[in-house]
Amino acid sequence: MNNQTDIDIVIRYLEDPGNEQLKKQLNEWIQQDAGNLDIFLDMKDMWHGDPLPAASAFDTHGQWQELNAVLDNVPAVKKPAEKGRVIKMARKYWAAAAVLLIGGTWAYFGPGSYKTFATAQNQDSLRLPDGSTMYLNAHTTVRYARGFGKENRQIKIDKGEAFFDVTKNDALPFIVNAPDVEVQVLGTAFNVKAANAGVKVFVQSGKVSAAYKGTEKKVILTPGVEASLKHNGTNIDTRVHKKNNNILAWKTRTLIFDEAQLNEVADALEDFYSVQVKINNQQLSDKKLLATFRNMPLDEVLDIMKKTLQINIAHKNDLVEIY
């Protein structure tokens, strides 16, 4: 679904809010991405000529909770006399004003209190207003306040994985909010991954504080250390990684295995290629791989593994079986 189609879904609904089919399409579209609700709410306000909310008053979380009520109670819109011409012009306006494409990453610059960036099957990078750089993995959604770099330096990761190279500013701590977890730094380089099970934070340089929101439970991370924080959890597990690890392989596009055990290799392949890797013969777990793969196709990597480790590997669709 492209951005023109996305905007058309909202406009068709606003033209005929009583249409159950349009309401269903709108609801499905909103559920696809956290940023879609913001687009809908802002467009609805502008459609009806309502004043836009002030940044401090815009409650996205509350809007999510009230979504069903919003969809059920939007009043009918008066149709203009020259409906066909006006609607065509309106659709062109929304498509141009509400969504901007940047190198495969879409960014919403609507009148809400923050900007939302999302990637599909691509990766992208963005220089933030304070001079910091944010690298986004595929299928990642982040947002930051319009006053970023002046009033605060807060970023929210709704889903996915991002690496931050942070410009030092003692007066404005750099804060990353992920589900249930808050990460705070002054100047450093670190990676945050928000997955279904929880949040992982890995530090490349500097120091990072990772904490459960609303609690005193936190940990200070130094270079090479990764913290795992579970959703609705209380414990923070930490792990020290050796220099050659694959946590940032999605960014460097390079997999490095330094006498890595096969189960560790399997985990890295799953993250890097978005596949499921099963080791059907556990006697193979002790085998170790010494290899470097620089942005190579999965089948080429598997072929080298087969010959190097003298093992059998089958790859079909999204499943890799080692036996």
Overview of this protein structure:
With 323 residues, the chain is an alpha+beta fold. It is built from 9 helices and 20 strands. The model is unreliable at 50-104 (pLDDT under 50). The protein has a 15-stranded mixed beta sheet that branches. Strands 17-20-19 form a 3-stranded mixed beta sheet, covered by helices on one side. It folds into 3 domains: 3-101, no CATH class; 128-240, Sandwich (Jelly Rolls); 249-322, 3-Layer(bab) Sandwich (Phage tail protein beta-alpha-beta fold), CATH 3.55.50. 25% of the residues are buried. Strand 4 and strand 5 (133-136) form a beta hairpin.
List the helices and strands and how they pair.
Elements: H1 3-15, H2 20-32, H3 34-48, H4 60-65, H5 67-73, H6 83-98, E1 99-102, E2 105-108, E3 114-118, E4 124-127, E5 133-136, E6 141-145, E7 153-165, E8 174-178, E9 181-185, E10 189-194, E11 198-205, E12 208-212, E13 218-221, E14 225-230, E15 236-240, H7 249-252, E16 254-261, H8 262-273, E17 276-279, E18 288-294, H9 298-309, E19 313-316, E20 319-322
Parallel strand pairs: 7-8, 17-20
Antiparallel strand pairs: 1-2, 2-3, 3-6, 4-5, 5-7, 6-7, 7-10, 8-9, 9-12, 10-11, 11-14, 12-13, 14-15, 16-18, 19-20
Helix pairs in contact: 1-2, 1-6, 2-3
